């Protein structure tokens, strides 16, 4: 057996440390006892990682679509010359906004950094968005509005130290299993710790809830506006904190009072029991150490950003932020959703938490990169980007490490758009996916276990992913492909990287560049990690940012402990959140609400977890879950097949009546695709409405009908 290699799990945002060993009969995987996120624990997906490291279906060589319409093997030079040349022609003819990149939270921070540098600094467009737009863009926008910067103020230790943990729109037990285990263990040690779960569904997570609030889908803002009004009415306010460290409280309170002034009115709007709601409000009011952790049930909404700010408002009013055991906490979905944000991995951001809409920020980044250009306005967000391909504004797209034909809302439109697109480049690990079918150029990427770099988990902890397997075929790192295109455009100096350590060093230097009170202060600061050579980078231990100069290896700093925020006034902002109903209401044709999400043992579009026989045994096929009475009314029966239809598409799934759903709600998992079930892509069902601020789709609320097959 080979020497152990410490790396990081490639699935959820918990970011568990993994120890991998290569043996004659396969890969041995264990939890890393030294990693602060998991202390040796792994969930079933993490522990089955070895089973997914098989050669089946791998894309091993670059391929170009020939005149006969088939994809044919070619050399890297030919493929990259073709990509660089075709993109150049389109940019020269139609301008930089005619090309786009759609990337992924599966990329490593170094891949993300090079992609953003190439696209924003050298192509001169901000048309680079990521599938993280689908899961945490509302949290980013909420943080930026309230704190002036995308800062997560809570760590996993805070969850364990809290006396009340409120889990909102999060099936933590299935989607962040090791984090959930940490909460369970903390509650076992301190039974006085209370857990409240706010979720329309009864899930595995509600098993540890002292109180479950099964609110009507889409009514979270009513709930938290009601809490804000309740706290204010009962004098549960930290006046010194509000006075010294915040702005805008009066307006936020006025909106909360006007829209959710009585518990009875809120209970009616949220369709929950008044006494249960009162119990929650009282519990929150009397408990100082509260963490409100939220996930996709909050973010994936046409009011997602307001939902996030309605939660943050309650923490600001009570001064419950910046101290141990308290604060609002966004649980990120993907292994590197956070790392991507750090290097500007959204069409609305620049690298190092700097903003496209601020001329000083743009000038600072351009100066650091010494780049010929920098875009002056945000680019197209995920759903808009594929709309722009569909209507011909965007003529070329490079899709990296993601499968939008399955995962985007109105996914059939994505198919149509890609079919029309002049140039579709896909870099991926797997050869045949729903998306690679539309590629003109396929570029083989390194997979987990083969690639090297960093990821950042939900608590801002940067960890190394390390290679322990050789590159198969001619697979290459994503950052290398991008740098090679940059070199072909004449930017050899800017993209002369010999390894990910140099890219990380440049990223760290950018976080420190001009990061002073006199220039552009920001909390993301990796000055303490600047100057690592390959050996130091290889040895990098997991560390939470910021890492100021001289602080590497010390205990994590606590954001906002000094009451300093990153808005121009250095104060946190209350954001008024007038409640809005989901955009599409149910009607006679589509009388139920479709909710979508993960199951315990699968990941995204199953290109990896689908390879593990063990993981397939938990839930073997796509299903539609609904209340037994709704099943009766729809004429469908447990175990039989049914059509699930919306205005955007339909699929066939097996009926379940688990008893977990309230009346008028339907749940369909997100994972299955053409490879594993005949076209059960839930994305094809979902409405393409997005939050007006964050651009995050409303995956949790599409009117739907269920009928016998
Ligand atoms: Fe991987 Fe998340 Fe499971 Fe940890 S909890 S092993 S990061 S899937």
Automatic annotation (TrEMBL):
GO terms for cellular component: membrane; oxidoreductase complex. Its cofactor is [4Fe-4S] cluster; Mo-bis(molybdopterin guanine dinucleotide). GO terms for molecular function: 4 iron, 4 sulfur cluster binding; metal ion binding; molybdopterin cofactor binding; oxidoreductase activity. Residues 2-57 form the 4Fe-4S Mo/W bis-MGD-type domain. Keywords: 4Fe-4S, Iron, Iron-sulfur, Metal-binding, Molybdenum, Nitrate assimilation, Oxidoreductase. GO terms for biological process: cellular respiration; nitrate assimilation. Belongs to the prokaryotic molybdopterin-containing oxidoreductase family. NasA/NapA/NarB subfamily. This is Assimilatory nitrate reductase (NADH) alpha subunit apoprotein. It comes from Fontimonas thermophila.
């Amino acid at each position: 057996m080979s020497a152990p290699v410490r790396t990081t799990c490639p699935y959820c945002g918990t970011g568990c440390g993994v120890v991998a060993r290569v043996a004659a009969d396969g890969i041995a995987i264990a939890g890393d006892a030294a990693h602060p996120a998991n202390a040796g624990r792994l969930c079933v997906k993490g522990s089955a990682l070895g089973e997914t490291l098989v050669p089946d279906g791998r894309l091993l060589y670059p391929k170009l679509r020939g005149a006969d319409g088939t994809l044919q093997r070619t050399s890297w030079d030919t493929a990259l010359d073709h990509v660089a040349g075709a993109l150049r022609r389109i940019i020269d003819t139609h301008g930089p906004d005619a090309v786009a990149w759609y990337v992924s939270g599966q990329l490593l921070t170094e891949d993300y950094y090079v992609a953003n540098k190439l696209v924003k600094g050298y192509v001169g467009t901000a048309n680079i968005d990521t599938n993280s737009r689908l899961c945490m863009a509302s949290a980013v926008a909420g943080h930026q509005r309230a704190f002036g910067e995308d800062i997560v103020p809570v760590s996993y230790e805070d969850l364990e130290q809290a006396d009340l943990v409120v889990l909102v729109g999060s099936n933590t037990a299935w989607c962040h299993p090791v984090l959930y285990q940490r909460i369970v263990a903390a509650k076992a040690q301190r039974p006085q710790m209370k857990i409240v779960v706010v979720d329309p569904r009864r899930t595995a997570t509600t098993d540890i809830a002292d109180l479950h609030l099964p609110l009507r889908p889409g009514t979270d803002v009513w709930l938290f506006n009601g809490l804000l009004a309740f706290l204010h009415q009962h004098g549960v306010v930290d006046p010194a904190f509000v006075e010294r460290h915040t702005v805008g409280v009066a307006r936020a309170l006025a909106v909360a009072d006007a829209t959710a002034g009585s518990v009875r009115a809120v209970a009616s709007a949220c369709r929950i029991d008044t006494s249960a709601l009162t119990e929650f409000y009282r519990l929150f009011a009397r408990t100082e150490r509260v963490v409100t952790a939220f996930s996709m049930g909050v973010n994936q909404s046409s009011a997602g950003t307001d939902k996030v700010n309605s939660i943050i408002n309650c923490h600001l009013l009570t001064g419950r932020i910046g101290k141990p055991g308290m604060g609002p906490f966004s649980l990120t979905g993907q292994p590197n959703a956070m790392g991507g944000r750090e290097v500007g991995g959204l069409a609305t951001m620049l690298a190092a938490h700097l903003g496209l809409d601020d001329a000083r920020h743009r000038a600072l980044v351009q100066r650091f990169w010494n780049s010929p250009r920098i875009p002056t306005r945000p680019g197209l967000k995920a759903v808009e980007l594929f709309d722009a391909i569909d209507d011909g504004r965007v003529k070329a797209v490079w899709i990296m490490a993601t499968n939008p034909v399955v995962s985007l809302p109105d996914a059939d439109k994505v198919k149509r758009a890609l079919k029309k697109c002049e140039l579709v480049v896909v870099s991926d690990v797997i050869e045949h996916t729903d998306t690679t079918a539309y590629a003109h150029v396929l570029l083989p990427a390194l997979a987990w276990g083969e690639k090297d770099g960093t990821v950042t988990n939900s608590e801002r902890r940067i960890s190394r992913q390390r290679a322990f397997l050789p590159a198969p075929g001619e697979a290459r790192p994503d950052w290398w492909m991008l740098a090679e295109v940059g070199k072909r455009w004449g930017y050899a100096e800017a993209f002369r990287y010999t390894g990910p350590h140099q890219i990380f060093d440049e990223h760290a230097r950018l976080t420190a560049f001009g990061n002073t009170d006199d220039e552009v202060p920001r909390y993301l600061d990796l000055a303490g990690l600047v100057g690592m050579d390959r050996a130091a980078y290889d040895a990098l231990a997991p560390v939470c940012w910021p890492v100021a100069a001289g602080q590497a290896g010390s205990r994590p700093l606590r954001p906002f402990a000094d009451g300093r925020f990153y808005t121009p006034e250095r104060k946190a902002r209350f954001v008024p959140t007038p409640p809005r109903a989901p955009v599409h209401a149910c009607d006679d044709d589509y009388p139920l609400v479709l909710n979508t999400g993960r199951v315990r043992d699968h990941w995204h579009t199953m290109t990896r977890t689908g390879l593990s026989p063990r993981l397939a045994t938990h839930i073997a096929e796509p299903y539609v879950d609904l209340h037994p009475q709704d099943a009766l009314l729809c004429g469908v029966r447990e175990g039989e097949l049914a059509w699930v239809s919306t205005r955007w598409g339909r699929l066939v799934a097996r009926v379940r009546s688990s008893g977990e759903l309230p009346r008028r709600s339907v749940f369909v998992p997100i994972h299955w695709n053409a490879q594993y079930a005949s076209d059960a892509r839930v994305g094809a069902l979902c409405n393409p409405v997005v939050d007006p601020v964050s651009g995050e789709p409303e995956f949790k609320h599409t009117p739907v009908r269920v009928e016998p097959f």
